[in-house]
Amino acid sequence: MKLSKIYSNKSIFKEIIFNEYLNIIYWNIEDHLTNVNAQEHNLWKTSLVYLIDFLLLKEVKNNNFFWKYKTKFNDWIFFLEIKLNDGNYLTIKRSIKNNNLVSIKKHFSNNQNFTDLLTEWDYSDIKIKTKKDEIKAKDTLNTLLNFNVLDKPWYNYRSFLPYLLRTQDDYGEVFNLDNFFSDSEWKPMIFELLWFNWDILDEKYSLEKNLEFERKHIKKVNLESKVSDSEIYKIKAIIEAKELELKEIKDTIDKFNFFQKEQDINIELVKEIESEISLLNNKEYNLNYNIEEVQNALDNDGGSIIKINELETLFNEVGLNLPDQLVKKYKDVQLFASQISSERKKYLQDELKSKTEERNSIRGKLYELNKKRWDYLYILREKDTFIKYKNYQDLIVKLSWEILVHKEKLISAQWIEKTKWDIDKINDDISLLVDEIKLELNKENIDLIEIKKIFQDIYKKVFQYTVLLIVEPNKKNNINFTTTVLDFANDTTWKWDWYTSTKILCASFVLSILIYYSNKSFYKFAYHDWILESWWDKHKVSFINLLRDYCKKYDIQYSISLIKSDIPNSLIFNKWEIIKELSKWNELFWMEF
Fold first, then answer.
1. If we measure between CA atoms, which residue out of 20, 46, 44 comes closest to residue 530?
2. How many Cβ atoms are within 10 Å of 521's Cβ, its own excluded?
3. What is the chain's Cα-based Rg?
4. Which terminus of the chain is more exposed, N or C, with fewer CB under 10 A?
């Protein structure tokens, strides 16, 4: 992908057409400096970088250039034409006012003008910020660019873009730019570009992020619940004790609940029960008397009839003979009496059984009635019964709440225990990844060697010193990307560790990546604003000549901004290399900020 053309719906904005290789934006600002303050001067110088970034769908936030000056661009629409890696072209349309809407159109030739309102767009007014199921403009552009470098789903075409578009304030660091919020955003990407197994590092950052989250969560739970995992068994014992206490209170209150819910307790009800008890007591008394009489009758049955042998003995004692006829008659009487006694005994036994069963039934009823009467009288006679009932209810509520609180503490303690186990597991996984990262760093990496060679070659041709590109583990066992310049004795030196050197280091790194991946579908351009500012003249000449050679040899496009005072007399630009000359009579937007 290369830049091809930038234009606008406003005729005062003069189109910028990029050539294939070296592009110079020449600023003659010496006369202009008398009319602007320092802040305005810096904005004016870097505004083209902001515009390119905007047209490549950078989101407009409150610190963005076009957010600050949106009222000045209220009806402006900009167009960026880019050359795709397949040789075709693509134009992006975006307005300042409705900056969330983007239109995209593919075409086969360059230097087009689609400012006509009747232009048919392949993708019209698609959104940068979208709802869940809407087509995203960045995803669409990502697909159309069709990169095969950094082509993982979690990357997009903008991932490496901050290295390619640098303002004069973006040369403080070679690798860690202000555009990135954390190391995890850029280090796996650079790790992959240098042909390491990036997913090891990415997974480690992901685990460390989870680890930090779990630790903060544990701390928060500890503060909120004031409990730790060591209290699990104590809390369980408290819950068991309070649940037992609650059950006992519920058992005590059950009878109150029954009487209160099932019937009204009053004196009349108790009197009715007592009357029934009195009646049954009388019945039981009479039955006891009857049973005793029957039992006595059974016990004395047959005892009043004298036996015949006893009668004969009596007659003999007085010297009299008992007549046979009388004996016969007496035996008949005795037999008759025996028959009557047997029948009477059976009757008495049946009556005894019936009376006993009836008495037992009455006794059962009396037991139930007396128990019920006692329960009723307990409630009626106890002065504080209903107060106690209410207190029991209050205690049930209190205990239920305490049990709930302790159960929540138990859940927290169990969660803390599990999370600590998870943390230990994460730490174990991280330790394994640390070992894998070290193995990765120690393996033979011919691609990295080639990238380092290009990187060193660019720096040495400009500054004559040898520079090292170092990939090493840091104190957290993640990765550090550093550069070190050697002096002529091949000792490390801080001599070139200053602003000018850092600029060429930034350029060397970007160029080495673009050159190495020049045979892939990837970015083939960079725009480094004011990169030659403060360089020595001989370094500027060396750098420009090197750019001319590399851009043509590897088919890459490199654009820089220069001011008149930064150009040495010995440096002559070709006419086609200067794509834009700007001054106070020919401003980029024809307005002051």
1. 46
2. 16
3. 54
4. C
Question: Which residue pairs from 433-439 have beta carbons closer than 8 angstroms and sit at least 24 positions apart in sequence?
Answer: 433/200, 433/203, 433/204, 433/207, 434/204, 434/473, 434/477, 436/197, 436/200, 437/200, 437/201, 437/204, 437/473, 437/477, 437/478, 437/479, 438/473
Kind and range of the H or E element at 471?
A: strand 466-473
Residues 6+ away with beta carbon under 8 Å from 268: none
Instruction: Check: CB of residue 91 under 8 Å from CB of residue 63.
Output: no
Letter string b/e over residues 552-575, b meaning 16 or more CB atoms within 10 A of that residue's CB: eebebbbbbbbbeebbeeeeeeee
Report how far residue 231's alpha carbon sits from residue 225's, in angstroms, rounded to the nearest whole number. 12
Mean pLDDT of 161-185: 89
Handedness of CA 125, 130, 136, 138 (dihedral sign): positive
pLDDT at 546 over 70: yes
Tell me the pTM.
0.70
Q: How many CB atoms lie within 10 A of CB 409?
A: 20
Strand (E) or helix (H) holding 81: strand 77-83
* pLDDT tens-digit series, residues 329-381: 666 666 655 666 677 677 777 777 888 888 888 888 888 888 877 766 665 56
Report long-range pairs for 286-292 (Cβ below 8 Å, ≥24 apart): 287/355, 287/358, 287/359, 287/362, 288/359, 290/351, 290/355, 291/352, 291/355, 291/356, 291/359
Q: Are 84 and 148 in contact (CB under 8 A)?
A: no
Cα 96 to Cα 54: distance, rounded to the nearest angstrom: 9
Contact status, residue 530 vs residue 507, Cβ threshold 8 Å: no
Res 497: pLDDT: 47
**DSSP states along 308-341:** HHHHHHHHHHTT-PPPHHHHHHHHHHHHHHHHHH
Determine which helix (DSSP H) or strand (DSSP E) holds 226, and give its type and residue range.
Answer: none
Q: List, in order, residues 6 or more apart from 134 with CB less than 8 Å away.
A: 126, 127
DSSP string across 110-130: SS----STTPPPSEEEEESS-
Residue where the block lists tokens 């850029």:
186
Q: Locate tokens 């750098």: which residue?
A: 543
**77-83/89-95 β-pairing:** antiparallel
> Are the CB atoms for 18 and 3 separated by under 8 Å?
yes
For residues 322 and 49, give the distance between their C-alpha atoms in angstroms, rounded to a whole number: 161
250-283 residues labelled b (16+ CB within 10 A) or e (exposed): eeebeebeebeeeeeeeeeebeebeeebeebeeb
CB 437 within 8 A of CB 191: no
Asked whether the predicted pLDDT for residue 224 surpasses 70, the reply is: no
Nearest to 78 by CA among 589, 505, 590, 508: 589
Inter-CA distances, 527 with 22, 172, 436, Å: 10, 16, 37
192-226 exposure pattern, b = at least 16 Cβ within 10 A, e = fewer: bbbebebebbbebbebbeebeeeeeebeebeeebe
537's tokens: 């003249």
